[in-house]
Amino acid sequence: xxxxxxxxxxxxxxxxxxxxxxxxxxxxxxxxxxxxxxxxxxxxxxxxxxxxxxxxxxxxxxxxxxxxxxxxxxxxxxxxxxxxxxxxxxxxxxxxxxxxxxxxxxxxxxxxxxxxxxxxxxxxxxxxxxxxxxxxxxxxxxxxxxxxxxxxxxxxxxxxxxxxxxxxxxxxxxxxxxxxxxxxxxxxxxxxxxxxxxxxxxxxxxxxxxxxxxxxxxxxxxxxxxxxxxxxxxxxxxxxxxxxxxxxxxxxxxxxxxxxxxxxxxxxxxxxxxxxxxxxxxxxxxxxxxxxxxxxxx
Amino acid sequence: xxxxxxxxxxxxxxxxxxxxxxxxxxxxxxxxxxxxxxxxxxxxxxxxxxxxxxxxxxxxxxxxxxxxxxxxxxxxxxxxxxxxxxxxxxxxxxxxxxxxxxxxxxxxxxxxxxxxxxxxxxxxxxxxxxxxxxxxxxxxxxxxxxxxxxxxxxxxxxxxxxxxxxxxxxxxxxxxxxxxxxxxxxxxxxxxxxxxxxxxxxxxxxxxxxxxxxxxxxxxxxxxxxxxxxxxxxx
Lengths: 298, 235
Prior knowledge:
Number of strands of chain A: 0
Distance between the termini of chain A: 21 Å
Order of helices and strands of chain A: HHHHHHHH
Structural class of chain B: mainly alpha
Largest sheet of chain B: none
Oligomer: heterodimer
Number of domains of chain A: 2
Largest interface: A-B, 29 and 34 residues
Order of helices and strands of chain B: HHHHHHHHHH
């Protein structure tokens, strides 16, 4: 296969936006390192939770990013569905944001369980927030699967937007129904997660704040990168289609020229250069076997 | 719109009357699921077969979970019902014919939902008898059970028809539809189970809040489906 021609990769963002993305990436990395250092080595252990409190610098910021990600995805879905603001950019943003959101939902559940085991004494409890988060996770995995269905970009965007809307409407219903279920049938026996957050001050507050900033920067960086990738994929598909059409036109012209004397069924350009683009995608195996002298039994 | 809905509903029911796919395949599937629940969680001890009062016992675990198991069986059957409902449209380009028919998309949505609702209600009656028969479920307040079941089924078909239309063109529809469908109807499962438990216990007032949840859910998704079905069919 041919090598990647980096010069040919089209510019998705402006130069300034590319630089901004890079700076955000570097800042995210630096602030994450700082959060880790402050969280693990500088801040003191908590009076009640001991060293477990260090999860405070990770778990709430991740959960916050999850909310931001789904919020952005929902807003861009609405903007896509609204006829006046309908634009594939919003569809891409919804896709990028919800993909990052799913990753952070997984991390929220994971870090929450790790925290819940020593503090609540259980990996899992059917608390409304936990249950809603878990359902949100599977719901948006479904949404991402829906996005991956083939189709032309407009159809896919519309389909994903409606699917996303169905899922998003469900979130409050799930939350309240689980809330009523618990309040009707079981007194809250587990510790409230808020109790772990009592009396934060000094270095702990700064570290928590830094954690929020770090993970938010990471989110922005991920979404920018993912958005760029979606756009490139779109352009790639379109360019490939254009090339394929051009190639087919040339081929047809060659057939016309050669078809007159019926000497060969193989067009010149094709016979000399082999399959254009070095890709069997545009030419079926039948045609290849014609070029190769008809290797029988291949 | 209602006339169109009636036409589509009649068409689907007529196809079912001729093909009997739901009756011959989906309904037995629901019964199999009920039997499997019995095997999986029924505690059957020959010593406890005759209880103190002298009556036969069907196993406590099954009886106490009967409402939930009933709804799981219904939902598993419902997802197959939705697939069947759109398999009809995928045959012989019926979907294109439906689009060319100039019927109101909202009418098509309501018609398909109506036909599925009717089929599922019939299926539920039979599965509920199965639960009474196999699990020893005793419904104290039958009207409340029926009300909860009707609203929950309305919610199921509303979501089911939207997602069915969304995935019907895709090659991976068999695997994708359950993944999309089940998380969204999770609150319906919860509310329907709790409302039916209230009906079984004979305390409708404690189940009223779940009826409200089911009403809200059914309303949201019927409204969404009515609005969104036009763009979905255009694909």
